[in-house]
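Contributing: when you submit paired examples, paste them exactly as shown. First protein:
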Amino acid sequence: MMRWGLILAAVVVAGVGLWTFMALSGGGEAGLLRPADAAVVAQGQSLYAANCASCHGEGLKGQPDWRSPGPDGLMPAPPHGENGHTWHHDDETLFRLTKLGPAAVVGGDYESAMPAYEDMLSDEEIVAVLSYIKSTWPEEIRTRHDSLNAARAKK
């Protein structure tokens, strides 16, 4: 009898692990961001205001001349709206840039003031922030972004 209990417990643990992996990796869907989930977007908006807006702007507008290094040699914060380049990166890349920081992901001589958020925000909070950002994009941009996620999923 105890053996069946252990087997059942192992199956439950494996199932929860698989569900968590699928949820964080996108589970075969277009990506891992959830811009249509109102609760996730609301959480992301709050987290963005507290952690990102001081550099990227309350209106997602970024800093002036964001394509060229500033006087300090660091790349300014880019805009996250439709006029920026955030949507040119698939969900996984955006997640890694936020969690690990641009220097760790881009490498080379790329320097920016953006920190790695792995010690400040949970994975779910990072997904919420990015979901909020994506929720502000026009439908055409979201569709193009979804195609990046679909292409990455096929690799």
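Second protein:
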Amino acid sequence: MDEATLRRQLREAAEAHRPDRARILARVERGMAAAPPEPARLRRSLPRPASPWARTLAVAAAVVGVLILGGLVATTVHRAPAPVATVPAPHPPLQAAGAIDPGSNRWWAQSNITLTVPAPLSALTVELRVALTGGIASTGHWRTLPEQDFTVSVREEGAALVYRWTLKEGRTVPPGRHVFAGQYNHAEGARDVAADSYTVTTTDMLRRQQSLRGDFGAPER
């Protein structure tokens, strides 16, 4: 069989199997007419395809949400820490000590009250009580702070000779070591100081008040 004969036979076979277009269309139309109607509930449940505008808005909203979330995270991460309040260290307590001055003798004595003041004071009263053991008579008094800053009184009250120093209003006692001393004569011999005492009352710049009481031990060295 030559090539020309083969080509002719193939063409005839193809034409013999060419589909009938009219018959196919008629079959499709019959099938559509016979198909049952789609249930209304099923039609309502199927989601409508999103329009291009809806898809665009959804993408934009997602981008904005990511940007806002990123900004919140960045703000949280880079926010400066809150300053920590510092509490000043408390001052050491006010201290007071009473002692008989080592320069005292068989007829005369000096009672010293030494204050250790840690912070400025806006009010101060120092009271020295010398028991009237016999022959007691004041011979003077002094203090290491300025004389013009205090009002001083010396008088007998009950069974004691009382020295009282009171800081004047508007004056201030600075921090440091301050001494108040009362001088007096007494009967000859060693004097018993067991009944002697002192009281110190203070007010600091924050209006906090403090009171100390004490007595007199061995002479200062």
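If you have annotations for the second protein, write them as plain sentences, like these:
Helices lie at 3-16, 21-34, 40-45, 52-78.
Strands lie at 95-100, 108-117, 121-131, 137-143, 150-157, 160-167, 176-185, 197-204, 209-214.
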